[in-house]
Amino acid sequence: MNFPYFVSQRIRKPDANSFSSTVTKIGVGSIAVGLSLMIISFGVLFGFKDAIKQKLFSLSGHIKVVTFSDNQSVEDAYPISNDNSFYKNHSSIPEIKHFQAVATKSGILKTQDEILGVIAKGIGQDFDFETFSENIIEGNAISFTDSSYSKEILISKIISNKLRLKVGDNVIIYFLNNPDRPRKLSVKGIYETSLEEFDKNLIITDLRLLQKIAGWGKDSVGSYEIVVKDFEQLRTSAKIIQEKIPADMRMTTVVDQNMALFDWLGMLDRNMVIFLPLIAFVAAFNMISILLVLMLERTPMIGLLKALGSPNWQIRKIFLWNGISMITKGLVLGNVIGIGLCSIQKYFKLIPLDSSNYYMNYVPITLDWMIILLLNLATLALVTTLLTIPTFVITRIQPVKAIAFRK
Length: 407
Fold this sequence. Notes:
The protein is of the alpha+beta class. It has two domains: 3-55 and 262-403, no CATH class; 69-247, no CATH class. The protein has 15 helices and twelve strands. The mean pLDDT is 88.
């Protein structure tokens, strides 16, 4: 028989109205609150990072390949011919998940009452609409025709509000390099990423329209956008792709293009490094205090066990088992609360946000089950280890005085 475990079971269920019952509930509650806060914190952190990255990647991919030039504008001044080894063999590069050819041109949208400068991004049928479709809030994606370029465009919600356009409306676009040949286009859909740098002036149109405006051939594009299979290995993948591109091309990563945004995401990680240890410290401190109270209340029992010949370590294990029982109940309750609240927010989006400050309209949640498992194991290991500290008090208790102790 495991004597310490047997005794801990007998003292684990005190009277409901006793002081021991109250402090036990406090101990379970402190672990539950601490773990649930950590689960929610990681859920919100990963949710923010995943949502922002997903929006950004849907617009620009992970890597952009362009021709070498001194052009500093957002417009593609020099085309890339698709008659090159990199374009023809890109599917054989294992690091590449998706590859798409695009082009950008500056233009002006004009309605009867308003005008607005925009950047037109031309896309083809290789564009990753499956990812981008999550940004479309009204209408549908562009429909491509076989004979000519599509006259449909996607505009952002910001542009829609400024020009008072809705799905199905027509709008005139003037291109700055060819202002004498305006084009009449139809709004097929409205998107919103809440990334103001893009939403304030980016429209999506047919690549063939921009090729026609620029006087390029059908095999000429402005740049290549690449999505790698593992974003965490972006630097490594970029080096491999760099070796594959022709000498007259250069490449940049999405991190290099959006340093401020990724610095902000890195700051969230640093805040979490400070925040989580504080939660763990508070939970551990509460458990140490509670175990000391429980041992103080059981002082006569400790003295009796010592008088009967029980060694200190055997008595200490009684209270360690008691502490582990409280920790386990707290972990179960903490998981229920943390995962439950995260799931409610994830599926019902009850907590809103100001998209102008946070890049989205609601608090995003991403539940990483491996992280949740590690949080449980780390909490159990840390608090259990720290609980050995207060049990050293048992070694200083004298049997004669302890047996005479009265509540």
